[in-house]
Structures are given as structure tokens and as C-alpha cells.
Design goal:
Elements lengths: L1 H10 L8 H7 L4 H29 L1 H17 L7 H18 L2 H9 L8 H29 L1 H20 L15 H14 L2 H29 L4 H20 L1 H4 L5 H18 L5 H29 L5 H26 L5 H34 L1
Helix pairs in contact: 1-7, 1-8, 3-4, 3-5, 3-15, 4-5, 4-6, 4-8, 7-8, 7-11, 7-14, 10-14, 10-15, 10-16, 11-14, 13-14, 13-16, 15-16
């Protein structure tokens, strides 16, 4: 498990993730073009997510992670050719494929590394896993802008080296340390297993709906947050530091999440956190820099808490040879929503401010997520009454 945690740390040091929009804007890209690029990325994720989950369950989660890291290296190389737009488009399509292979495979390999007698503590281990990942993200977010202020090329070179190290670490994991290295089933049987899972586990559908809509809301604020902050004349270095601080605080919260759920149920905690975030998005419409800055920090911090709870629910429900596929289904739905969101931003950016668009989109998505969560909890109550 130690190597899996170490891999997660390196894999999440993504120096470019906060500042790439600023970089492309400096290279002459317009907000509409950047939104279009983001739309291409998200629609590519939507296309790749489910197939990549099936592939991961078939070839093994370890192999899927290595392949994903290699593809992400190719994506990073395209930033050196920012003036060749078509090449950057291809790069982001590759990035979507790489992340799709990593998404779901990482938490699945973690779950498989936990002994059967310890499965009830998976949420605790997932907390450690995310704690390290978020700390790494904080390091990447905080340092990316500072390195870029010295040299954009140096930042991308370091990002490439980090991806290579991540691949080496995951390659060094012993197959005996994980429950399942790969499946002997055919792709057809893996798909049938997943379809059977979705059909039988009806709660999974509502979990996916709530998880994907809420994730999309926060992801939009995270993706476009740097551009919003630049509109307030905040420097690239400070933007990088702010988002690094967000990850740092979030890492502490996810570490103690296991203890929090002993006092308040997971379902209630998710509803409370999402309701609070919905209120924060509404305050963005005021347009005050302090409200926006503090709001972006808070929603991105507490999102990490409810997202872990959703991942735990999916892992508890999923069948052994359909784990990555189950996570991929949630990410697929999120990608579709993000694609539509980027399309809306591209259109309405010419009519109103970016902060207004992000605010309204965030409220709509979080409200939909809350509806799905409330239906899920109501169904659980009905089932419990019938069983009693």
C-alpha cells in the first residue's frame, strides 16, 4: 500500500493544472477558444471514460495506470507548441484519455490492496490516500505558478519528469500486494457484469447522478477560478498560492473525515456540505472580490469531503471485476455535464461576466445533485422500513 500512496502523491503533482489557461491566454488564445478547448477535453473524457474503465478492469488496474501516465506525458509535450492550435487540441484529447485510464483505476487498486478483514476501514485508508493526493496537488498548485513566472518551459519539463516517476513507481508494485492484477474474463463478460451491477444496484444510479452533478459544479469553479481571479488583477503567483492553500486545508479535512462520520451520517454530511456550497455560489453574483475569493476557497475545500464519501459508497456497492467501470460511469456523467458547461461558458462569455456564468451554473448543478441525494436517502429509508 505504501507504493500506491507514494504513486498517488507524485501523480497528483500537476504543475500546469492551475495556470495552463493563463499560459494559453498569454500565447494569444481568447477565452472563447480556451472554453472550446476545455469543451473538447471534457467531451473526450465523456467518450473515453466508460471504455477506459472496462479496459482497466480487463488488463488490470496497475497496467492501466502506467498507460495513463505515459499518455499524460505526450499531452504535456504539446504545450511546447501552443501556437499550433490543432496540436494542443490533440494534446488535450490525449490528456482526457490518460486521466480516464487513471480515474477509477487508482482507487480500485487501493481497495484491492486492503485486506478482506480491513475492508470496513476502507474509508479511513481512502482518507489517507486522498490526504497524500491533495497535499501533492497543493504542492503542484502552489509551485506551478512560481516556476512558470521564472520559465514556462521549465515548468512543463518538470511536470513531464514527475509523470515519468509516477509510472516507474506504479511499475514497481508487486502483483502479490494487490488482490487482482487483471481479469481472465473477456471484454464482453466484463461489460455484462457491469450492466448486471447497474441493473441490480439501483442506489448506484442516484449516487452517480448526485456525485457527477456536484463534481461538475466544483470542477467548473476550479477550472475557471484562475481566470476569474485574473479579472480582479490578482497575480499568477498569488493565484497559484491560493489554490495550493485550498488543497492544503482540504487534505487535513479528508484525513479526519473518518472520525467525523462517527458523529454524523455520511448522507447527512453530504447534503449539508452541498447545501452550504449552493449558498456560496449564490453570493458570487454580488461580484465582490472578497466574496468570490473566499467562496472559491471554501467550496473547493469542502468538495473533497463529500467526493470521498461518494467514492466510498461506490466501492462498497461495486462488484470486484467492475470497480473501475463503476467509477468511470460517474466520471463519464461528469464529463458530459462539463462539456455542456464549457459550451455554455463559450456562448455566454460574450454576453455576461465569467463569474456570473460560473455562479449560475454552479447553483443549477448543485441543486440537481441535492435532489438526487434526497431521493437516494428517501429510498434508503423505505428499504430499511421494509427490512424491519
Amino acid at each position: 500500500m505504501k507504493k500506491i500512496l507514494l504513486y498517488n502523491g507524485f501523480s497528483n503533482i500537476m504543475l500546469e493544472v492551475i495556470v495552463w489557461m493563463i499560459y494559453l491566454k498569454n500565447q494569444g488564445w481568447s477565452i472563447a477558444e480556451i472554453a472550446l478547448l476545455e469543451g473538447i477535453f471534457t467531451i473526450s473524457q465523456a467518450i473515453f471514460e466508460f471504455p477506459s474503465g472496462i479496459i482497466s478492469d480487463k488488463i488490470g488496474h496497475k497496467n492501466a495506470l502506467v498507460l495513463g501516465e505515459v499518455i499524460c506525458v505526450l499531452y504535456l509535450i504539446t504545450f511546447f507548441f501552443a501556437n499550433v492550435h490543432i496540436l494542443v487540441y490533440v494534446g488535450f484529447i490525449l490528456f482526457a484519455l490518460g486521466l480516464s485510464l487513471i480515474s477509477g483505476s487508482d482507487v480500485s487498486i487501493l481497495y484491492e490492496s486492503v485486506e478482506e478483514s480491513e475492508k470496513q476501514k476502507y474509508l479511513k485508508y481512502l482518507g489517507y490516500f486522498n490526504f497524500i493526493g491533495i497535499l501533492a496537488m497543493a504542492l503542484g498548485n502552489a509551485s506551478g505558478g512560481w516556476i512558470a513566472s521564472y520559465s514556462w518551459s521549465l515548468m512543463f519539463i518538470i511536470a513531464i519528469l514527475i509523470r515519468i516517476i509516477s509510472a516507474i513507481i506504479i511499475l514497481s508494485i508487486n502483483k502479490d500486494d494487490i488482490k487482482s492484477a487483471s481479469s481472465d474474463d473477456t471484454f464482453k463478460s466484463v461489460i455484462k457484469t457491469f450492466i448486471s451491477f447497474v441493473y441490480k444496484e439501483k442506489d448506484f444510479r442516484w449516487i452517480v447522478l448526485s456525485m457527477s452533478f456536484s463534481s461538475a459544479a466544483i470542477t467548473i469553479s476550479y477550472q475557471y477560478g484562475p481566470l476569474i481571479m485574473r479579472d480582479f488583477n490578482i497575480s499568477t503567483q498569488l493565484i497559484s498560492t491560493v489554490f495550493g492553500s485550498i488543497s492544503l486545508v482540504a487534505s487535513v479535512l479528508v484525513l479526519i473525515l473518518y472520525k467525523i462520520t462517527k458523529y454524523i451520517s455520511e448522507d447527512k454530511l453530504i447534503v449539508l456540505l452541498q447545501t452550504f456550497s449552493l449558498g456560496i455560489f449564490s453570493f458570487f453574483l454580488v461580484g465582490n472580490m472578497i466574496f468570490v475569493l473566499v467562496g472559491l476557497i471554501i467550496v473547493n475545500i469542502i468538495f473533497e469531503m463529500w467526493n470521498i464519501l461518494f467514492e466510498n459508497k461506490i466501492q462498497e456497492l461495486a462488484y470486484d471485476n467492475a470497480r473501475a467501470s463503476a467509477i468511470s460511469m460517474a466520471t463519464l456523467c461528469e464529463s458530459i455535464i462539463l462539456t455542456l458547461g464549457s459550451y455554455c461558458i463559450s456562448i455566454f462569455s460574450k454576453i455576461t461576466s465569467l463569474i456570473n456564468i460560473v455562479s449560475v451554473l454552479g447553483m443549477i448543478l448543485l441543486f440537481t445533485s441535492l435532489v438526487g441525494m434526497l431521493i437516494y436517502t428517501r429510498n434508503k429509508v423505505k428499504v430499511n422500513k421494509l427490512q424491519n
